[in-house]
Amino acid sequence: MPAPVTTIAALSAHEGQLVTLRGWLYNSAGKGKILFIQLRDGSGIVQCVCNKAELGDELFEALKHLGQESSLIVEGTVRADTRSKLGFELHVSTARIVTPATGYPITPKEHGPAFLHDHRHLWVRSRRQAAILRVRHLAVQAIRNYFDGHGFTLFDAPIFTPNACEGTSTLFETDYFGRPAYLSQSGQLYGEAGAFALGKVYVFGPTFRAEKSGTRRHLTEFWMVEPEIAWAELEEIMDLAEDFLVECTGHVVEHGRGALQELERDISILENVRKPFPRMSYDDACKILAEIGHPVDPEDDFGSPHETELTKRYDRPIMVHRYPTAVKAFYMKEDPANPVRALGVDVLAPEGYGEIIGGGEREDRIDVLLRKIDEHKLPMSSFEWYLDLRRYGSVPHGGFGLGLERFVTWMCGIPHIRETVPFPRTIDRLTP
Ligand code: 4AD
Ligand code: MG
């Protein structure tokens, strides 16, 4: 009877036993009558020790000449190996080559980013990329756990939309049977309808922005999670953002230690993400920036160098609230105490990772909203449905959006957002 099939991640439960592993050759090195194969199976990488005397000349030679990423099935005994990261190796008793591969383009030597991104469909097999994508998975799990565990109902928003949510300059327009339709920039407006129906909801899905510049923080297609709560005012939104980020970071650190170590992430920084997060008004943030030699025009917005300078001073995310109304979206509520400031909040990550969350209170007064739609030169007709939310029992409400890839970039401590998604879309990349 063949030995039971298991995975590399589960090897510790099989010490001393004969098992079968199915995977791909990651690397190999030989020394005379001994061959070491690094086998990758998606759950991990294990060293497989092949002995010529045991396997016979023919199989040993075939394995020795096997190219990187050939697929194979090996049977062998699990042995403790204190020198390896995994703690185990496989002493191979027999093997079957499934599909030999030659000329795999991504070799252990250095490749440039353009080459790697052109081969993204293969690059995702590398240790580092697999670790990043595992962190992404854990982040999604943490997000769902958080909202599901705090009384929120998932409320899906459409992707084809008739109206802009976040300004008209980054809209992707499509031809919808002869009419224009736009790919959703944010599910928020629909989330507001959900909050008035179900109380506390979250929208979680892909969003699209025609970002015309290539930066380390922008994708044209990214995932956003957007909670929206009826009756919530700005303070409550900030409390939620803080609690949510602490929980999500904790989940990633607790379950992703191996992946974060693979990425050489300094975990102590993430362990520091505790309440309370420093909170400051935009005007106070401008004063700090002026004092440290990075002045901002207070009626303008921060640029990313300002965010970096400001966050450098803190060991955890900070919350900046009450930005100039003029730089924020049409739906953001004006501060009744000072209408040139909006009741919005951005959460800025430490270590220069910048804005990860944007949100705040929504304009709940129909007269102000009508004026804002007009001022922003948005087509009133496509907002009729949204105005109904103000006509029929409007109440204070608000929420925020977390950019999943921005969060994952920060968790992983990597310089560029494009590695946090299996197949990134940026201004200059549509393939693979
Ligand atoms: O600040 P933004 O534009 O806010 C909204 O879209 C609100 N409607 C959200 C809400 O209140 N429900 O975007 C929210 C977050 C940003 O903080 C950032 O993390 C991410 O979305 N984001 C991007 N991530 C990657 N690439 C881009 N081009 C992004 N644009 C925004
Ligand atoms: Mg924003």
Give the topology.
Elements: E1 18-31, E2 34-40, E3 45-51, H1 52-55, H2 57-64, E4 71-80, E5 88-99, H3 113-118, H4 120-123, H5 127-149, E6 153-154, E7 160-161, E8 173-176, E9 179-183, H6 188-198, E10 200-208, E11 221-230, H7 234-255, H8 257-262, H9 267-271, E12 279-281, H10 282-291, H11 304-311, E13 318-321, E14 334-335, E15 338-342, E16 344-349, E17 354-361, H12 366-375, H13 384-391, E18 397-403, H14 404-412
Parallel strand pairs: 3-5, 6-10, 12-13
Antiparallel strand pairs: 1-2, 1-4, 2-3, 4-5, 7-9, 8-9, 10-11, 11-18, 13-16, 14-15, 16-17, 17-18
This protein binds 4-amino-1,4-dioxobutan-2-aminium adenosine-5'-monophosphate and magnesium ion.
The site of magnesium ion has 3 residues, from strand 17.
What distance separates the N and C termini? 42 Å
Strand segment tally: 18
User: What is the radius of gyration?
Assistant: 26 Å
CATH architecture annotation name of the largest domain: 2-Layer Sandwich
Helix and strand content put the structural class at alpha+beta
Counting DSSP H or I runs of 4 or more residues, the number of helices is 14
Helix content: 25-40%
Stretches with pLDDT under 50, minimum 5 residues: none
**Could you say which small molecules are bound to this protein?**
4-amino-1,4-dioxobutan-2-aminium adenosine-5'-monophosphate, magnesium ion
Strand content: 25-35%
Assigned CATH superfamily of the largest domain:
Bira Bifunctional Protein, Domain 2
CATH class descriptor of the largest domain: Alpha Beta
The pLDDT mean sits at 96
CATH topology of the largest domain: BirA Bifunctional Protein, domain 2
- Most strands sheet: 8 strands, mixed
